[in-house]
Amino acid sequence: MVERIAKAQGCKVSELIGQQQRLQQLRLEDYCDAQFGLYTLRDIIRELEKPGRDPRPEFRTASFQEGVETLADLHPGMQLEGCVTNVTNFGAFVDIGVHQDGLVHISQLADRFVKDPHSIVKPAISSVYGCWKWISHVNGSLCR
Question: Is the pTM of this model over 0.70?
Answer without folding.
Answer: no
